[in-house]
Amino acid sequence: MADQASAEGSGKSHRATGWWWLSQATHAPVDVLGDTLDRVDNQIDVLSRAFLGATVSCARCHDHKFDTISQSDWTALSGIIRSTRRVLHPVDETGQVSSFLRDLEPIRNLFQQGVLQSLKFQSSLPLGDLLRAARDLHLGQTDEVSEASREEMTLGDFSEGWQGWNIEGDAFGEVPHRREDLPEGFEEGLVGDFLATSHDRRPGSDSETSDHRVGQLESRPFRIDRDYLCFLVGGGDYSGETCVQLWVDGQSVSEAVGENSTRLRKVRWDVSEYAGRQAVLKIIDRHQGNWGHISATSFVLTDEPPQGFPSRSSLLKVSRDRSLDKDTLRDWVKSWTALMSPTARRTELKSTDRLIDDFKTDAEFLWALDGPAFEQVPAGTWLLIGEPRVTVSDVLTSAAHSRALAGTALSRSFVADQDFLHVITRGEESEIRVIVEGYWLDQHNPLLFEGFIQKVENGSEDQHLIFDLSRYQNRHVHVEIQDRGNGWVSVDRLWLSDDRSLPEQSPDWTATLEEREGNGKMLSDPLLLDRLLKNDLVQPSRWGGAWNAAVIKPVMEWKELESRLPEPRWALACSDAPVGRDVPLQIRGDSTTPGELIPRSSLEFLSARSVLGESIQGSGRSKLADWMTSAENPLFWRAQANRIWRWVMGEGLVDTPDDLGRMGSAPENQNLLDYLANRLSKNPSRIDLIRELVLSQTYAMDSQQPEKRNEERDPLNRFWHRSHQKVLKAEAIRDGILMVSGRLDRQQGGVAVPIHLTDFLAGRGRPGTSGPVDGEGRRTIYLSVRRNFLDPFLTVFDFPIPATTVGKRDRSNVPAQALALMNSAFVQEQAQFWGARLHEASKTEGVDPSLILAWKAALGRPPSEQELAAVRLFVVEGQQQDWVDLAHVLFQSKEFRFVR
Predict the structure, then answer these.
(1) For domain 153-302, which architecture applies?
(2) 850-880: per-residue pLDDT in tens?
(3) Global confidence as pTM
(4) Which candidate among 70, 138, 488, 765 keeps its CA 20 to 30 Å from the CA of 337?
(5) Where are the domains of the chain?
């Protein structure tokens, strides 16, 4: 019912909570709350009948007609269940994750200290002067310098054909295209009259194959002596296949693709860093198929900066006047737009918006964390995500320890009273989802829940996710952040708004720059530091020795520890909501007619309403489990004692184990039931009780007694003067056949074996693969179970429908069972296998010893003289098929399925 181990623990109790989520569900609930209430009703039904022998589910719509169970009791339990969350829990079976976290802590501290120490060396740089100079140049707050600019140099406009260009292949034709020869749309954006394009549909060319031809244009070498290279490009969007490339010293340094558009767009490359070096241009078409062409023209080298960028002469003057390195200043100027790009992280929300969480470390933390991955960290914390990265604000992150760790973070429930939920996040290979009224299915109808699961895949750049909640106004929702162990995610804040737009504004660092105590103080702003690092304006690693000693060593130790972590293993389990909530009574069980709020609690007729306490932390499952298993609650121990007795003895002391109320059967031996319940409450070990029962004289009795007087006085055996005849359950019949045949695989655990699909198992959702007839010899417990495709052999022997708890199985005796044992492919296959073994044994051990062995294996006794004589004649000829038929007969015998 409730896990008593920690979220990071490997206790079996955590995995045992998975049964809560084995209920039926639908992919397209129009009434999502009604669907949730249906599942909750099923959970309450299983909980109350299995643990209490009470039919609380009957009180969903009204008070119970026969037992003292009210609709308020049902609602109180539903509040506990609806405050419980479904999770896939990463199980630490070997304790390796716990060991990793302990060993990592000192290394992580050294890493943090090392990075901070290395950053101190950056304070010697004129960071403030560079930032101010870059600002002044962009805002034009410097003295203008008149300097004769160098003329533009045309590298290729194709007005003189392919002169100066080497041509390969047949894609571009014999001459460039003139404007009047271009297909419709190709002239958009064209400057001049000529275009190099591999989409050749001119007269005389095979227009049908124009996008299948390949080729390349390569310019003659030229010297880069201007700051910018400009040109026009259009065509296919295939990197390396339909593109324009700049090659410097034999290496490709820049590339532009056509973005799947015939319209020509202007591209400007800053090539100042390659000044004085030799270069060539390549126009490439290597793609065959749709958009398999490239168009380009007007290649020009120029000193004219882009709009808003300072001139070369202004930059040189400022660098001289302020004693700054011109190349460093140029880098800052180039990065100015990125440094000042708008951000939502420090922007005030509108007055109508509602903040859900911004993870401020000085505020109450209202998230439930399952698994070891997630941690709340303050701004300025250094994380190791491939390389050191700094958190720019207080965040909830799964990267605090390792990308290899997995886990889930779950928010509190809140009412969706505005149309959109906004999330600011970073990360990769993770996802964020919104759960409406507890509806958790991964595969659902997109018309109802489209966009409610979104991928986080923007790396270290901010990603703005918007969840449209307009269809679910005034519903209770919560957010789940999931990291499956191969990525990472950091969430900055979440808020509700009626507006889809993102409130952004550019950071204003320069306004307060004068107030800072020296240049080094600039590094104390995590957001500014993050942008300086991303644009290589601050490079701690340039101080090689200090960086290696302080950072590289703990990083290597960190990664070495990380490499030992195993792949996560998942278990379906429960996690509490960080803040539980009471739910309203649904009048007549209708999801659309809420009544008064009912506090979460136990059953009123068994305890006071306040038995779980006035303030319940989380869902209240732990307190409910404590109350349920307390000595003051007799129903739990009676229900458990009765079920254990039934499994061991074949019949229960109460014939209705799922209902100990008025509609159930009364116990024939109340004193014995109370004794077992009292004994179990004092010593909860089921193993000890089972051991005591199987060693008892009652268990050892035969189901056939010679004393007719006892049978006359107690014909129904209510006072246990003999043993009840037991019938093997469906699983035991199948496992028994495997064990007797010698095919049983006794391995424990492992992946479930797919069910063997017959022609009769058809319909929507049919599994794509069929398992072997014998289930690889595995015990039945290891066969996969699908509600719509149950194993026919098991079903005919009363295998229960897996939709709710079944304390007492149906016990039928119908012709279909005999037919299954006769005609089932599984039984016939095992008879062949066992018959072959018996045949071989008869050759070495003799016929009679082999027959005795067969009887003992299948029936648990040796054959009588009459049986031995009759069967000896049957197999005397020594044919293998005779032994196979004998094995088949033994499997079909009543004595194989019934235990005296």
Answers:
(1) Sandwich (2.60)
(2) 999 999 999 999 999 999 999 998 988 779 9
(3) 0.81
(4) 488
(5) 1-94+569-628, 153-302, 344-505, 632-724, 725-900
